[in-house]
Amino acid sequence: MSSIADRKQHLNVRDTQMEMTPRGAVGSSPLTEDFTGKLKEAQTQLEQLQQQQAEVERQRQELQDLNDSKEEFIHGQVEISEKLSTAVTAMDREIFAARQEIEELEQARICFADHLEKINQLNPDGWNNDSLRQDLTRAISVLDLAEDEFEQACDHFSGGRSASIFGGGGAKPKRAASSNSESEFATMLRNGLAFNLPVVLLGTLALIIYLVK
Length: 213
Description:
Elements: H1 2-20, H2 30-121, H3 132-157, H4 172-190, H5 197-212
Helix pairs in contact: 2-3, 3-5
């Protein structure tokens, strides 16, 4: 009787032990699966945050580059604006001076053309002996007036860009003309043509009288 009871007790113990064995001992438990899922989710979120951080850094760098380009543009804008403004002001002054000089040149040209026309109308070969004094006086006056205005123009334009038009200007042409006259007069004396001297003196005297009046 006792042996049969012992066998039943052993069987009950084994059954109890089998019931106490966890069902998931062979596989993973629900707690482990939940932890693994949360870990993967955390890793995914971390990757997303890293991507967002990289995007933010990229945008920050792009904005910094844009700001640097803007500063460079502003600096270039100020620099070229100053250069252009200075150049425009200088060109305005130059254009104004050039226009003024052109206007003065036009006036001088009109004056010179008028003198040239009057000089070309002089014909010493056609002068009569009866009116030689008057014709010579008038002709000398025409030449002197033309020479005076030419020298005035030379002096006026001597400091400008048009000085070369007048061949250096000033009183040099007159001195050169005087030297040439003296040389011609010496030649005339040597050639026995000194009889022209009274005519020249009379013409000079007539010119002085004309100018005094």
